[in-house]
Amino acid sequence: MIKEKGILFVLSGPSGVGKGTVRKALFEQDTALRYSISMTTRNPREGETDGIDYFFKTRDEFEKLVSEGELIEYAEYANNYYGTPKTYVQQTLDEGKDVFLEIEVNGALQVRENFPEGVFVFLIPPSLEELKDRIVNRGTETEDKIKARLEAARDEIDMMDKYDYVVVNDNIEHAVKKVQSIVVSEHCKRTRVAKQYKQALEDDEK
Amino acid sequence: MIKEKGILFVLSGPSGVGKGTVRKALFEQDTALRYSISMTTRNPREGETDGIDYFFKTRDEFEKLVSEGELIEYAEYANNYYGTPKTYVQQTLDEGKDVFLEIEVNGALQVRENFPEGVFVFLIPPSLEELKDRIVNRGTETEDKIKARLEAARDEIDMMDKYDYVVVNDNIEHAVKKVQSIVVSEHCKRTRVAKQYKQALEDDEK
Asked: In this protein, which residues make up the domain named Guanylate kinase-like (chains A, B) (predicted)?
C-alpha cells in the first residue's frame, strides 16, 4: 500500500511579528493540520499547560534528547532551550497528515535543511509592507526617512529569500485566511499531484 | 511610479470536465478577478449575450483580428473559431488586476508560451481522481478493469505536466474554493513578493 505523505508547513518570521497569535487563531478554526508542540526548558507562564503550549523539560532532559538526535531543530534564547521533537513530525507526515510548526527564524532554517520539501511561510509586520508600498507606489516622492527605515528593514527582506511564501500580518483574520489558502493550494500543486498519478501508472504497469 | 502587475490565471482541462460551471460559480462569489471574455464565430445559444458570455464575431472579423495579432490564443472546433482577445488581458494586468481565462487545453498551451509567468490550473474529472485513489490506496488489489481505465486516462495525466495546479471537480463548491485558494496563495509567493521589496530597495538606493 502506497500512502500519500502529509505536508510540513512552517510558520516563522521576525521576533514580535505575532506568529503565536496567528497560529492560535488558525487552530481555533476547523483545520486538518496537526500542530507540533515545541519543547522548552523555560518555566511555564501563567495559563500555559505542559503538552498543550509546550513540552516543558529540564536542561538535562533537553540536552539528552538533543544528543540522541531527537530534535529536528533547537536553539537557545535567553538561557532557555526551545526545539521541535522529531518523532511526532515524522510519524504524522508518514500517516498522510499535514504538520504545522510555528518557530523562530533560526529554527526554520534548520528544519529547511532536514525537510527541504516542507512549505515555509514568512510572516512580516504590516509596517514593512506599508514601507514598501509607500516607495513602490509613489516612486520618486520618497522621503529620506522612508529610505532610512527601509534600509533598516533590509535584514528582514533578506530573510524572506529562504521562504516559499510571505504573509503580511496586517490583521489576524487576513493572515489566517492566507495561511489556510497556502495549505489548500499546496495540495493542488501539480508537482505533488502528478507524482501520485505517475505512481498509480507505475503500479498499473506491474 | 512602479505599479505591481496583476497575475494571469488560466483554468483549463479535458473537454466535458465542467470548466464553464466552475468559472460561473467562481464569478458568482466575491472576487477581484477580471474575467476575460472569449471571442467566437459560433452562433449564440439560447440565453447567451454578446459581450457577457462571448464576443460573437463573423469568420471574416475573427480572421482579420488573428492576422492583426489581436488574439493571444485561438483554435477551431467544429468549424467555429474560439479565441482570447489580447488588449483586455494586457491592459488589465498592467493596471495591477488579476485576469482569469477559462479555455480549452490547446489554447492554454498557446497562452503559456506568451505568458509563461501565468498560473495554469488543470481541472480533472472526479473519475480520474477515484481511479488513482483506488490504485494508490489499495496497491496490489487492483483489478484489470482499473488498469485498463487508467491506461486510457494516460493522456489526461500527461496533459497535467504543463500546469501549475491540479484541481479535482468532485464538487463545484470544493473546486471553486481551491481555485480561490490558489489565487490568494499565488499573491503570497515569495518569488513575487520579494521582487516587490527588492524593487523598493533599489529605488531606495537611487
From this structure: 6-184
